[in-house]
Specification:
Shape of chain A: globular
Order of helices and strands of chain B: HHHH
CATH superfamily of chain B: ACP-like
CATH topology of chain B: Non-ribosomal Peptide Synthetase Peptidyl Carrier Protein, Chain A
Distance between the termini of chain B: 5 Å
CATH architecture of the largest domain in chain A: 3-Layer(aba) Sandwich
CATH class of the largest domain in chain A: Alpha Beta
Low-confidence stretches of chain A: none
CATH class of chain B: Mainly Alpha
Helix content of chain B: 40-55%
Distance between the termini of chain A: 21 Å
Low-confidence stretches of chain B: none
Number of helices of chain B: 4
Order of helices and strands of chain A: EHEHEHHEHEEHEHEEHHEEHH
Oligomer: heterodimer
Chain lengths: 328, 90
Amino acid sequence: MGLPIALDVMGGDFAPSEIIAGARRAKEELGLEVILVGLPDRMGDTTGFEVFACSEVIDMDDDPGVSVRKKKDSSLVRAAELVRDGKACAMVSAGNTGATMASALLRMGRLPGVVRPCIVTPVPNPGKNPTALVDAGANAECTPEMLVQFAKLACAYMNAHFQVATPSVGLLSIGEESSKGTPLVKETHELLRSDSTINFFGNVEGRDIIPSPVDVIVTDGFTGNVALKTIEGSLKYIFGEFVKAMGVDENTKKAGETLAPYLLPVMASLTPENHGGAMLLGLEGICIISHGSSNATAIMNALRVADEMDKAGVVNQMRLAIRPDQEG
Amino acid sequence: MTDSPLTRDAVAELVKTQLAEILEKSPSEIDLALSFADLGADSLALIELVEAIEEQLTPLVSEFHINDEDLEGLTTVQEAVDYVSAKLAA
């Protein structure tokens, strides 16, 4: 039996009830062991779980760095410490993203050679493995060397999570030609092209994110986050309009009943909560960042991914991707 | 005012070494006159630096602590060295 997963039950719009409900489903449906980290008097029924009691909560609008230093007994900081101290194999939180990143970075530490950790988000790619979009928001300003590292870390993630041996890497730009894009994009293009350890596909555009011709799409955290939120918002709107159209009159209701068996699986495959959240790459431990609006299903899937990442040895794969001479 | 357990040069060396490690640079690249922004150190990197300095100095000065409120006023490496030196001498 491996180590349990540390779950920050105080983070998220529907915490702690939906977070604990997700932990219970992960335990019952997937057989995962979970440590609930939070304020005992706010958790409700925790029967069957190990509880790590703390006394503070980092709120969604708290400053990430300062809150981690000031709220040392918060659920987020304690969850990261459980991983650092070898008492948990991974941490999961749906709380303040910046503070989650700060907690994990300051408590677990960076892998040797990693300049900055980055966030990878699996973007649904119907009929195929998801595409790893990196950086999805950790670093608004990047250097070309950072983007090359992000690509290597995301390749290690794809290898560990989806057994893609040599993931193809695309660089997000405004045109396929290497002459297109900002100075950052053009310089990064040259570095990726000349790096023999990277299976570089070339530039990809925003329309190539879903569906995608590549396994990894690399970009800076500002662009990545804007792209991700644009996709989320667009899909939500389109699905909403479909559902509305199917209820206009008897004819559209019948059409809806006919189309539902075909559309519902597509909608399910594009729903973020089914994909287990984003992961922080480049650290000496596993940290899964779940959406702030996570429900029990999203948390269960985040815990599932945390477990899969641990079993796949993703940390060591990342270590080797950055420093091939180092075995953990 | 008390005797500082570290000279100003030693503090400068400590700050440069820790910052270099965090930014994956050589200590020789850390010029005291440079700003943290010029060196590519974001707010999280500064928090990493603060925690690393506190960890290194706590054995010399019990409970050595850098106030988070003071961080906003520190924009260059030299200012950080001056701040830590003053705290040690206080």
